Fold these 2 entries.
Entry 1:
Amino acid sequence: MEMVSRREVQWQQPRQDVSNRATNGSMSVNAVTDTAGEESLTAAASDLLSALGEDLYREGLLRTPQRMAKALTYLTSGSTMTMKDVLNGAIFTERYDQMVLVKDIEFYSLCEHHVLPFYGTAHIAYLPAGKVVGLSKLPRLLDMYARRLQVQERLTQQVAEALQEALNPRGVAVMVEASHFCMMMRGVEKQNSKTVTSALLGEFRDDPALRNEFLSTVRMGYGA
Ligand SMILES: [Zn+2]
């Protein structure tokens, strides 16, 4: 219950992107987000750092638990958002019935097995059936599912299914290409591998020509 109320409070605040924070260093982000839930996260972060053998009183770590709490709150903030929050009435009636593709959308997520980042690009396409969605909503939809503890396979599928549900289009295609810190910094330590996942719904699944159109348009500009 506490987690829910923390997140509700968090999301009533105006959103600030990283560049705003950087340029408006005096903005009191701390005052905005210090909530009961963040206090318990801060305490947990202190425990974690102590368990790692760190000295919580050395200068560089004095406010680290608070920073960790804020960062983790933000990085998981998508889990309490809904499609309604994201799409917010930006669905319009249009006769356009060819593929709409927004490609190379960057995203950052957290793997739920190690709570380490995975990041990369997503390509999101759909075939309208009378309705289109504001283009900026596709990256927002991606962020909603990326900002939570995730696995890449589920992220891919959730974005596709959400778009299918919201627009009821003739088809949806989503491809995600990502690098996983849990494979880069630890484990097999492979820095250059990429994991590619895709979800194809409706006509993209059934029609090889459409699938190829999606793939070749995604690859356009890569020299492939
Ligand atoms: Zn992992």
Entry 2:
Amino acid sequence: MSSEGSNQPHDSFDVELVARTAREQMPPGTSFTEHDADVLRDYKDFLYSLGPLLLHKFYDTLYAYPPTAAIFKAGERAARERTLADWWERTVNGPLTDSYFNWMAMVGLVHVLRGVTNPMMLSMGDHVAEVVAQQADEQLSEADADRLNASFGRLMSTVSAVIAHGYDVATEAALFDVAGMPMALLHRLRDQEISQALVRVRGEIGPQIQS
Ligand code: HEM
């Protein structure tokens, strides 16, 4: 189902619809499945053991880079480590059912309000998958690492897709509220603006890619 053309106002931001739409738009083979949930269950203890390393790497990465460090308030790190530890525990323990992805749609919104952008969220989703993959490659047999990494990679891709889609829907819904115009008209005006911008950008980019 698509949210295109929907006329829902902002105060009805629907986490269930956001999560479902994002997952349905992912081609088969790229999005998280029940089979992946079964695979992750087989590696639960291993994944759980990665918690402390993951927390440390995640926040060292964010605090070492000024644009992401600037998101945090003074003295906030311990509280943030706790929220990520809780997220990890819930992710590893499962169940990774619809309600988990609905929760991720909400978590995406929490970040919008703190000025965390999609590039920040998506790159950190990849970072989590990379830390897990590195550890799996080091600590597990090749067959186990391949099995786990494929399923865990799809989990993080799906979490990222839900978060990114939530960002789009929340922004659109807020514009809808402010402009008070039907969503279909808002989309048409958006596409007109983007078409004009594309003409200009193509003109600028064209000579660059030729050189
Ligand atoms: C894979 C990526 C990420 C995951 C899974 C994640 C997970 C979470 C979770 C579960 C919460 C608690 C939400 C709640 O209140 O219920 C949270 C809060 C928060 N996260 Fe993230 N996060 C991610 C990326 C980031 C990034 C990239 C930043 C900053 C650059 C960030 C900064 C924050 C902040 C500041 C809060 C507190 C929000 C508030 O309560 O005001 N997170 N995160």
